[in-house]
Amino acid sequence: MFRLVIDTNILIAAFLTPRGESSKLLRQALERHSVYLSPFILDEFLRVINYPHIRRRYEFTDDETEIFITRLAESANLDNPSTNISACTDPDDNAVLALAVEMESDYLVTRNVKDFPETYEKVKIVTSEQILELL
């Protein structure tokens, strides 16, 4: 069993394309592994999913968004990291990496590995494709 932190961009992709790779990854991760999320990640999801260009392109209701967030909060382990890290090119990603470090995650799964170091302490940063091969 792996300990995983799932980045916001994976959650967005899973929500918008329920039959896509990110959705498959999220389902498998929640069913078979320990998934860690933070209030920051859930807040970022809500902020990004409500961007006007996303709302125009995809059809979903506020209720669907709320159900998705509620299910995530019930299925994943929620924690608020207290560590400050400055290893990522995007400052928001530092909060995601801090969660992975504090939860002693094996993997941080993201679609934008370029913004993260390849590894940080014991956490390996991987794409959804890479983690699906391991799961």
Structural summary, described in words:
The protein has about 140 residues and is of the alpha/beta class. It has a single domain, classed as 3-Layer(aba) Sandwich (Rossmann fold). The chain has helices at about 10-15, 20-30, 40-50, 50-55, 60-75, 90-100, 130-135, and strands spanning about 5, 35, 75-80, 105-110, 120, 125. It has a six-stranded mixed β-sheet with strand order 3-2-1-4-6-5, sandwiched between helices. A hairpin with a 2-residue loop joins strand 5 and strand 6 (about 125). Helix 1 crosses helix 2 and helix 1 crosses helix 3. The longest helix is centred in the middle third of the chain and has 14 residues, at about 60-75. It starts with a strand and ends with a helix. About 35% of the residues are buried.
Describe what is shown at a glance.
With about 140 residues, the protein is of the alpha/beta class.
CATH class: Alpha Beta
- The count of β-strands is 6
Roughly how much helix do the residues carry, as a percent range?
40-55%
How many helices does DSSP assign?
7
State the separation between the terminal residues, measured CA to CA: 9 Å
Low-confidence stretches: none
Total domain units: 1
**What is the CATH T-level topology?**
Rossmann fold
| Rg over CA atoms | 14 Å
CATH superfamily: 5'-nuclease
Judged by helices, strands and strand pairing, the structural class is: alpha/beta
Strand numbers in spatial order across the main sheet: 3-2-1-4-6-5
Shape type: globular
The overall pLDDT average reads 94
User: The biggest beta sheet, please?
Assistant: 6 strands, mixed
Strand content: 5-15%
Q: What is the chain-wise order of helices and strands?
A: EHHEHHHEHEEEH
Second rung of CATH, namely the architecture: 3-Layer(aba) Sandwich
